[in-house]
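Cross-posting from the modeling subforum.

Setting up a comparison between two proteins and wanted a second pair of eyes on the formatting. Protein 1 (sequence, then structure tokens):
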Amino acid sequence: MKAFCLVLGLVFPMAARAQSAPPAPPAPVLVVAGSFFALSVADLDASAKWYTETLGLRVVMQVPRQNKTAVTVLEGGGLTVELIQHDDARPSGERLLVHGVFKVGVVVEDYAGLLELLRARRVEIALGPFPAREGQRANLIVRDNAGNLLQFFAK
């Protein structure tokens, strides 16, 4: 009987541990209320126009050219985009084959509305749209006028 109780004492605690829920993941280090990214572009005016007309952002700051650099900052809907034009900057070639930023992405409140707006404005969708499925939000990827990849995710 002692051996039976010893076995029960060893087996049941293990079974209980195996069935318990995994520990909760740690709390996120930060909570984002908006999104920001900065891009180096060849044509500041053309890129500012694309972000204004395509995504409805508005210019909130323009830094006049100094030391071969001009900057325009656009905002709207929680997104801030900083466009930088430097006279000596050159294209990086195939973005996937260059270390550094490959694409930027933001989570949007109204994904279906954004998709409809992009189609109405005849914005070419580079990849997608991809439907939501387990472990993946609905999303799509577009290229801006300078070829930068922007990925939009459903909330």
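Protein 2 (same layout):
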Amino acid sequence: MSWRFILVGFSLLLGFDTAAQMCLKAASTGALPLEFSLAWIVRLLHQATLYGAMAGFIAAFVVWMALLRRAPIGPAFAASNLDIVTVLVASHWLFGEHIGWPQLAGTGLIVAGVACLAVATGGDAPPP
């Protein structure tokens, strides 16, 4: 098993997941105001970023399936949740969203959890 493959794979996964979430946020913002009507659905379907979000989620799914074949499942699942951190940072950077102490504390807990699982597995990889 190649750790380079896993690192590149997780980087791609985080990138695709983050991009998809940002596209989805842009699409939903562009379709405002929210209302339960056909007009709102049509407005949403006219948002190009909605299709970017779909493409990003499909790409993330393909990368995730490839990673599951080679990466240890515990750390892989934990690392897949790092997109919460990247989405937080990207939302702050792209949309000017506020990052407060609760978000920073949650980010720290997520990163600590991923680190604990990585240490607990001892860096062992599954057989090829």
